[in-house]
Specification:
Sig_transdc_resp-reg_C-effctor; DNA binding; Sig_transdc_resp-reg_receiver; Putative two-component DNA-binding response regulator (LuxR family); 5 strands
């Protein structure tokens, strides 16, 4: 797999590398610091299989850069990775052909899950984007605090599902929440039943596509010594 990371900040490009290796340990990751460098990489051979594109690079004017890249390579999924994730930004990007929109505020594991969703042919939209512009949530969310079927989840179940989206194992979730691992398994069975998921991967996909406002992730507790 060849992945093009187009962002004018080297720190961002370098920081994404270890997470992109989780998609494919042998992935070739190509850097671009401007729109022209990104275009040159796409026009070269072989072409990338996935493009991560920052909207604020040199050469970018709004979504013109995205449109140019999609015109050159309409079959390559382009995911916007941006510090700006208002509802208008997200909707405009998707209408212009983006296969997803990932805010730079998300965790690395959540980003990997979002990219896996895109590579499977789906479109990823951040849940927070629907609330930033209007200042209020849709009616179903205002009434219950979460869109159906996530309104059926208990607070603990929501916390555990959020940990799952971050890519944590049952053991890691148990440690972070100071619970027994068997308790995590019981909660996850309830989560799957309530949201209509058959397994972990399906639960993550449903959550990422739902518009559910993912709760804050609890930090892991220190591991015992000795």
């Amino acid at each position: 797999m060849r992945i093009l990371v187009a962002d004018d900040h080297k720190l961002v490009r370098d920081g994404l590398r270890p997470f992109l290796r989780e998609l494919d340990s042998e992935a070739e990751i190509i850097d671009a610091a401007s729109l022209e460098e990104a275009v040159a990489a796409i026009e070269g051979a072989p072409r990338p299989d996935l493009v991560l594109l920052d909207l604020m690079m040199p050469g970018m004017t709004g979504l013109d850069g995205l449109t140019r890249i999609k015109t050159l390579a309409p079959g390559i999924p382009v995911v916007i990775v941006s510090g700006y994730s208002s509802r208008d930004h997200v909707q405009a990007a998707v209408q212009a052909g983006a296969a997803g929109f990932i805010p730079k505020t998300v965790g690395g594991n959540a980003m990997v899950n979002a990219l896996r969703l895109v590579l499977s042919g789906e479109t990823y939209l951040p849940s927070s984007s629907f609330f930033e512009t209007t200042g209020s949530a849709p009616a179903a969310v205002r009434q219950t605090g979460a869109p159906p079927p996530f309104d059926r989840l208990s607070r603990r179940e929501g916390e555990i599902l959020a940990q799952l989206i971050e890519g944590r194992t049952n053991k890691e979730i148990a440690q972070a929440l100071n619970l027994q691992e068997i308790t995590i398994k019981v909660h996850l069975r309830n989560v799957y039943r309530k949201i209509g998921a058959a397994n972990r991967a399906q639960a993550v996909r449903i959550a990422l596509q739902s518009g559910w406002d993912i709760p804050p992730i609890a930090p892991s507790l220190p591991r015992p010594v000795g």
